[in-house]
Design a protein that fits this description.
This protein has about 70 residues and is mainly α.
């Protein structure tokens, strides 16, 4: 998980990292995500006000496009 200093101070970056990691955790819990891949999540400005459920939906959509979710 990477969060640039452009997003804000340490408190903001820490919150965004927490939201991203929770969104990833929710996606991995709900779906069978393929193992053995290095996944890099880069936070953007919209992550500052997003909820973890919104992030989880975006991650899920991206994983389906990348075929990282096994059916």
């Amino acid at each position: 998980l990477t969060v640039s200093k452009k997003l804000g101070h340490a408190v903001v970056r820490s919150r965004v990292k927490s939201i991203l990691s929770e969104g990833l955790r929710q996606t991995e819990k709900a779906h069978n995500v393929k193992k053995g891949y290095l996944i890099v999540l880069v936070a953007r400005q919209s992550c500052i006000v997003a909820k973890s459920t919104d992030i989880a939906k975006d991650i899920e959509k991206a994983f389906y496009v990348l075929k990282l979710i096994e059916d």
